[in-house]
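Quick one, T. Sequence first:
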Amino acid sequence: MKRVLASAICALLPLIAKGAAPALIPIQAFVEQEQYYNPSISPDGKHLAVTARVPVGARTVPMLSFYSLPEMKLESVVRMPLFIVPVDYNWVSNTRLVVEEGEEVGSRERPQKTGEIVATDFDGTHQIYMHGYQMLTLSKQNTRYGNDWAYATVVNLPLVRNGHVQIASYPWDHEYSALYDFDSRNAIRKLVAELPSPNADFVVRNDGKPAYAHATDKEGFRQLWHFDDVAQKWSVVPQPKGTLLTPTAFSADDKEFIGWYSENGGAIKVVRQNVDTGQRTVLAEDAQGSMGTLMYGSSRTSPIGVFTSSGRPRMVYLDPSHRDVALHRDLSAQFPDATVSLTGATDDGNTLLAVVRSDRDPGVVYLYDRKTNKADLLLTYKAGIDPDAMAPRQPISFTARDGLRIDGYLTMPAAKGNGKPPLILLPHGGPHGPSDSWYFDDDAQFLASRGYAVLQVNFRGSGGRGEKFLHAGYRQWGGKIMDDLVDGVQWAVGQGKVDGSRMCVYGASFGGYAALMLAAREPDLFKCAVGYAGIYELPLLLKEDAGNVRYQSATKRFIGEDAAELARFSPTRHAAAIKAGVLLIHGGKDKRAPKEHAFLMKEVLEKAGHPPEWYYVDYEGHGFYDTANQAEVYQRLETFFAKYLGKPK
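Structure tokens:
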């Protein structure tokens, strides 16, 4: 196979630092969210659907935009009501898509799906409201079903795209899940299956029939259900405690499936299993952690590869004989400092989308033509970012005080000044499930561009290491999770690359909690602490989730309900111990971390004679959306860190 023209492509995406000290990058470059994301090519290759952020007043609003290919001529823009955005979409024919709607809740949270589903042609015509609680209000074509008091999501598309789509619906007030076949042209639905378990993820064979479903019970433990075609009945598949098996996709003949598998709560592998015999073969595993994102390429039935998730991602091919593997190897060779993902293709497999991204580049999208063996640049996710001016992100690993291996990333400033740079610890949100990755990180790159070293630690409780590692963080918010973060800081200082006398901690959401908890627990370690959209009074969490049985059950697993322990692990109860300078940033409409947390933290610090710096915007949510407010956050961070750490030399 001929190689793609490396010189042409590399000229479009420079990824190797030139060594020269970069000029100070304006805050606006980091503030701007990805202008484009989630590109999807039509089955015939004539159109591209992509979410584009369009300026509307003081903010940018995601809108579904359509372009003709290959010339990338804008054809139409589909705007949804304020705060309602397209979260996901699938082509159900050459000209029609089914769109899952969502609501923006803050820049620190992904848009939350509302369970509403609409269908539209690529030119914005023939829109139909297919499922949702506003059916009688918004559906002019079909009101026979009434309002859906349920959440819905797309499950499967037929192998032959005929305008139909299979959608799972989860009633708000009943403990079951339903799978429907919808005709996107008229919203007529047909029940395919019901399962006596809420919020189940259906797994459908290539013949369109349900085979498995995975769900969680009321205690939060995972269950695998199997559907018996003969008995026409669902049953729970018995599995040993600590074992996870999650079918994902079927072979062309439906006799085998590819899925996720782990034993004893360990890292997740990718396996192939025979449906009838149960014979299982491991296709991909990583000694450092769980396998990550699957890659399908032009295949519509089964993934051809999977990325590792720990450290710097690498590809493991699941089907080395697939023709896209040779293409992927060839494209990857052109970008040795990045990863290449084949994210979509035409039905004939001759035209594919390739996304190239790295630790220093948020990403670009190429359109590859198999017939001409050429890749043309389509989209740049964040045009204001120059990869050459960004800092490399080094995967790190250290041993915690109790012997557990902890991983993370250290981002050293690209500009080499005199002496060791100050260090900023940047705990991620969650804390249970999310994790930091090698890819481009706005906060880390912004701080590195200002001359700071940035440490990110995937403490126990983080995702990517299996259930046992995840559960190890339960009821350890102020305990072993904080130990892991402190051990990471001490490891970084011990490497001799950072100035251990000049360190601060900054985080958002759970990271904001960690920043204030560490300032109280380790008063002599950090010069300053920043809490952005943080939670600071743990007993409030149980009160906030009291109306939702499942949320409260999860909250109790995460933090427990022992009053003394909740007090001991609440930063609000330890304000007098805090010596570090404090900056609190919060939005008044934050539902994830209600404003009461921030106001209480501010109050107790003031009573302790240590008033914090304060930036509060009443109309913002869990992270600020308005461009001016985002810029103000970064400007205040820059000023605040310089005040306590001094400007890096």
